[in-house]
Amino acid sequence: MKIGIIGAGNIGGNLTRRLTALGHDVFVANSRGPHTLTELAEETGATPVPVEEAARGAEIVVVTVPLKRVPDLPSGVLDGAADGVAVIDTGNYYPQQRDGRIAGIEDEGLTESRWTEGHLGHPVVKAFNGTYAQDILDRPRPAGAPDRMALPVAGDDPAAKAKVRALIDELGFDTVDAGGIDDSWRQQLDTPVYGLREGVDGVTKALAEASPERPAAFRG
Ligand SMILES: NC(=O)c1ccc[n+]([C@@H]2O[C@H](COP(=O)([O-])OP(=O)(O)OC[C@H]3O[C@@H](n4cnc5c(N)ncnc54)[C@H](OP(=O)(O)O)[C@@H]3O)[C@@H](O)[C@H]2O)c1
């Protein structure tokens, strides 16, 4: 499958490693340009591209840049993606540590992914946001393994969500349907499921126990 990855840091880099190893055709971009991604390309066989080209023809696009950088992405960054493209958003809002205060999230009460959708002009599926980047390399397990981790996946488009859940299964993780994007506060920073290394039952329980209130440490 053709997959575009926008952001080649901790998460984007490790997804590039695993998805190329699975035989996918991966196009990867960062902010500084493809010439800065030669090492990752040599290691993985992925194709480094300018960010404007990362989504071209892709059936799945992963947007994995710091939240405050989402508005810097070129407008129309998803133009040219395949029909029915599923766009994965891995983002988290760290107002004090990294992103600064984002009014849409804090004053309008948008979930982080709803805010991101507004900038991308395309629906997203929220996944991997609570997954340690290293776990993408170290913790894949075959289906049915007793210690297989599960990841929550939220999104409004059932077809896109199903496509993302199938890809995550291929990567070696179970998934739990965490509802739509308006429900995705259940998997945001500092919720019980965030960083949780458990299976389907543990993740389901953690999602149910989440509180919509944003702790002071994660307000701007
Ligand atoms: N690290 C984790 O374990 C982890 C886990 C789950 C979720 N997340 C979330 O996932 C997102 C990415 O995290 P990360 O740790 O992978 O970030 P990171 O290591 O800081 O990497 C960010 C990447 O985004 C690229 N980027 C920034 N602005 C861009 C732009 N305008 N156009 C194209 N590329 C751009 C950067 O490119 P340059 O280097 O060229 O600027 C870099 O490759 C964040 O929201 C984070 O909170 C992280």
Task: Give a structural overview.
This protein is α/β, with parallel strands linked by helices and 220 residues long. The chain has helices at residues 10-21, 38-44, 95-99, 103-106, 112-120, 133-138, 158-171, 200-208; strands spanning 2-6, 25-29, 47-48, 60-63, 86-89, 125-126, 150-155, 174-177. The protein has an 8-stranded mixed β-sheet, with helices on both faces. The model has no long low-confidence stretch (mean pLDDT 98). The structure holds NADP nicotinamide-adenine-dinucleotide phosphate. NADP nicotinamide-adenine-dinucleotide phosphate binds at residues 6-12, 29-32, 51, 64-67, 69, 72-73, 90-92, 128-129, 131-133.
Top keywords for this entry?
single chain; 220 residues; Rossmann fold; eight-stranded mixed sheet; 8 helices; 30% helix
